Amino acid sequence: MGVKTDLKEAFKFIYKAKYDKTWGEHELDCVFIGEYDGKVKIDPDEADDYKWVKISDLAKDIKENPQIYTPWFGIILSRLH
Asked: What are the record's GO terms for cellular component (predicted)?
């Protein structure tokens, strides 16, 4: 995305999520925080699009549409918000 900024580690956590009988995740996730106020350069091999949203709007959307978010993203958002 072309973002360069200083990062600070916020927290780490381990989680498990099962999606079906044969597939799931068991991960150690590390969450970093930084601030950026510049242009975003999308690498089309890595992302189709992006958008900036308020944390409160994101929290509302994840409650209304949990199926479009990964389990780990909900965990991170709840810890940060």
From this structure: cytoplasm
pTM of the model: 0.72
3-state SS track over 29-78: EEEEECCCCCCCCCCCCCCCCCCCCCHHHHHHHHHHCHHHCCHHHHHHHH
| Number of independent structural domains in the chain | 1
Round to whole Å and give the CA distance between 42 and 1.
5
Range of the domain at 33: 8-80
Amino acid letter for position 14: I
- The rounded distance, in Å, linking the Cα atoms of 55 and 63 is 12
- Whether 1 is covered by a domain: the verdict is no
Residue 3, domain member (yes or no): no
